[in-house]
Amino acid sequence: MANFSRLKLALIGATALAGCSTMATAPAGVSAEAWAIHNRLLTLDTHLDTPAFFDTVRGYDIMERHDVERDGSQVDYPRMVEGGLDGGFWVIYMGQGPLTPEGYRDVRDAALIRAMSIHKMVAANPDKFELALTSSDAARINASGKKIVYISIENSYELGEDLSLLDTFYKLGVRMAGPVHNGTNQLADSTNPGAVGMKWGGLSPMGRDYVKRANELGIVLDGSHSSDAAIEQMIDLSATPIILSHHGADHLNEHPRNAPDALLKKMAAKGGVIHMNALGSFIKTLPQTKERTDAMTALRTKWGNPNQLESTRYELYLDELNAIDRQFPENRATLEDYMQQVLYTIKLVGVDHVGFGADWDGGGGLDGFRDITALPKITDRLLKEGYTEADLAKMWSGNVIRLLKAAEDYKASLK
Amino acid sequence: MANFSRLKLALIGATALAGCSTMATAPAGVSAEAWAIHNRLLTLDTHLDTPAFFDTVRGYDIMERHDVERDGSQVDYPRMVEGGLDGGFWVIYMGQGPLTPEGYRDVRDAALIRAMSIHKMVAANPDKFELALTSSDAARINASGKKIVYISIENSYELGEDLSLLDTFYKLGVRMAGPVHNGTNQLADSTNPGAVGMKWGGLSPMGRDYVKRANELGIVLDGSHSSDAAIEQMIDLSATPIILSHHGADHLNEHPRNAPDALLKKMAAKGGVIHMNALGSFIKTLPQTKERTDAMTALRTKWGNPNQLESTRYELYLDELNAIDRQFPENRATLEDYMQQVLYTIKLVGVDHVGFGADWDGGGGLDGFRDITALPKITDRLLKEGYTEADLAKMWSGNVIRLLKAAEDYKASLK
Q1: Could you tell me if A118 and A62 are in contact, meaning their C-beta atoms sit under 8 angstroms apart?
Q2: Going by C-beta distance under 8 Å and a sequence separation of 6 or more, which residues neighbour residue B116?
Q3: Distance from the B208 Cα atom to the nearest Cα atom in chain A, whole angstroms
Q4: Which residues of A touch B123 (CB under 8 A)?
Q5: CB-side exposure of B21: number of CA atoms within 13 Å?
Q6: What number of other Cβ atoms are within 10 A of residue A152's Cβ?
Q7: Which distant-in-sequence residues (6+ apart) come within 8 Å of A212 by Cβ?
């Protein structure tokens, strides 16, 4: 990781000269030393759900600094600079729908449009973002002063019954993919199986072909949202180590979206990596007041999916949401709860097998860890726990880049 | 068209103030009056093949002014300004390949990438280009000072056997589509049928479904490259008038890519429009010297497809191409040959049924009409022939916008 560090230092110098003073200020609660180290590291989050905003009627200007306390959004370019986040995996997320020809067609089209929207975001900001397609692209793009855009798939429902669409998405830049989201689909059982239930006992026959084809293409397999059995089968079947891109550990809070110790150890033994999710209810049971629950239900009934609202109505919706948050505050897990999970997991599987995928813009976010500007707090805390800059370099990007490289090498070995 | 004219004049004023002096200078051979009228008109070319350059290894910077005498390219933003071209239909062109599952998959993916590249071009230049999706978008975009980007499909081979992909491309912005290119495919017989031959006697059964679905989606059907029988069936079957987006008239030079008088009259009687192609060999038989033919064959054998060459090798290829052009000049048709076809066709079917689709970057271009900077010569000549500004407004965009509106209205009528 030494190369990354040198390149990053050069970059910091250039940016400082250009007057980007935000990079020189440590966020509150972060020591100057931790901030300096954080900025030297190449940092990737493995699950940025922000592209879900790109196709809304009002769009999402990635170059505008948003306020999480106002709209709940957690990622944009100004905050990537403030939080020292160099890039990540920008997600093509599709919600689960009916397992019918019509359902498959609709989701295929929507996923293609989402992929295109990520590309358009990069095309519109060529001096700020660059598409990353190989394991070596991250360091190169970081050295050029741009933010890194890998693309991943959350829920491969959009492949329908046509596995050749995985090739299509690979050609559109996808380098990480998971088979399922909430709701068992044609590929795998989900941790949240819904009406279809735990149908496959893990992966479906098509799901097994999917693992093989992902390996052949050089795509890193992502087990997040797959049932524990499906994850275990992915570990066994995959020719290269898998990732859990935004996942938790059962030990401190048993939850379907967290993995038991034995599974994490098995994954790590095969070289895999867990990137720790910061979604509150996965970390801690969080009872809300009846008043809040009722108010939120009424809000959702009144407004529907806020992503479908045009700007004027969206602002009115936010006014009401903000009023509820003030009147009946959310019971949230804290950064400390998260760090306890992270520290436990590092001790369990080691620094070569842990990273960060906080589910930003997908449900992640905690007290003291509301958006990506809080990321340096992780670095600060882990340094205080005695982890070294080299350890942090692995967790912040080295591990996932190793997985990308393994996937590429396997693909190359087939030729 | 009066609204267009006023808006355009306002735009010209604003641009002149901004120092864009090229718009104030009439191209050589064009009267000041014709140039002023040309700039007042909303001008669309219905077949811009330029996107074929976007996915080459070296890319194509639409904002760079290229030289047709050097690289043969004919369209870029600076030349759109010089030639007073306000926009057009930017083509997703795919060459015909095998009618096999593998062939269908490959072309589907390539066509999706081409669609994305057109969107990326627009996203990268948001103050210069804008995607047009409706018949009214052209005037609105023109009034805003941007160039108009409608998207069309040349060769629907990429649909494979899955007509639902036509919906996909509609969602990606396609508003005009033709079933076939060189080589009869799964949808229609081609004017250049290749090994598959004239298999269908016009449209295939899937081709007939394709016409119906295009109508339902509000896509204008394009008969260029379809056999005369297929064109006639499209006229009969389509619920809305069809276009021949880049086509010729047989009368002065019989050629498969030109249509006989009776077919043009039948199409016009149903409201359709022919946009006149400026591809030399469709206009006139053009024998080349044996020396040139041999040299060009050797060049192609040596270099292969120039679109596949990276920049350094491409420049070497151009050096050799330019040397051949100097030593053994091409025997080209002239602008006057083109105008004779245009004038004949206008007299045959009337100003409501003719427009311009010169096949720029797809084989078009003539002596005196080498790239889009020569477009005002058409306006100049037609004015001299006694056609009015109102006539020209129809031919330069009014007719094709009428077809878009008819397609939209039919779609709306189905609800």
Answers
A1: no
A2: A115, A116, A119, A172, B172
A3: 21
A4: 119-121, 123-124
A5: 1
A6: 26
A7: A237
Alpha-carbon distance B177 to nearest alpha carbon in chain A (angstroms): 18
CA gap A36, B346 in Å, rounded: 72
Among all chains, which residue has been given the structure tokens 């109102």? B390
Structural tokens at position A370: 């509301």
The answer to whether the beta carbons of residues B403 and B220 sit under 8 Å apart is yes
Q: Quick count: other Cβ atoms within 10 Å of Cβ B57?
A: 11
Output phi, psi for A42, to 5 deg: -90, 120
Assigned token pair, A327: 């009147």
One digit per residue, pLDDT tens: chain B, 415 residues? 334 344 444 444 334 333 333 455 888 889 999 999 999 999 999 999 999 999 888 999 999 999 999 999 999 999 999 999 999 999 999 999 999 999 999 999 999 999 999 999 999 999 999 999 999 999 999 999 999 999 999 999 999 999 999 999 999 999 999 999 999 999 999 999 999 999 999 999 999 999 999 999 999 999 999 999 999 999 999 999 999 999 999 999 999 999 999 999 999 999 999 999 999 999 999 899 999 999 999 999 999 999 889 999 999 999 999 999 999 999 999 999 999 999 999 999 999 999 999 999 999 999 999 999 999 999 999 999 999 999 999 999 999 999 999 999 999 999 8
pTM of the model: 0.92
- Judge residue A306's burial from the number of C-beta atoms within 10 Å of its C-beta, 0-12 exposed, 13-18 middle, 19 or more buried: middle
Closest of A146, A159, A164 to residue A92, by C-alpha: A159
CATH class of the domain whose range is B30-285+333-413: alpha beta
Which residues in chain B are contacts of A123 at CB distance < 8 A? 119-121, 123-124
- What are the structural domain ranges in chain B? 30-285+333-413, 287-331
Q: Please report the ipTM that was assigned to this predicted complex.
A: 0.91
Contacts of A109 in chain B (CB under 8 A): 167-168, 171
- The shortest C-alpha distance from A170 to chain B (Å) reads 10
Asked if A226 and A246 count as a contact pair (C-beta separation under 8 A), the reply is: no
Chain-chain contact of A126 with B123 (C-beta, under 8 angstroms): no
Which residues from B are below 8 Å from A121, CB to CB?
123
Taking one residue from A and the other from B, the number of pairs with CB-CB distance under 8 angstroms is 46
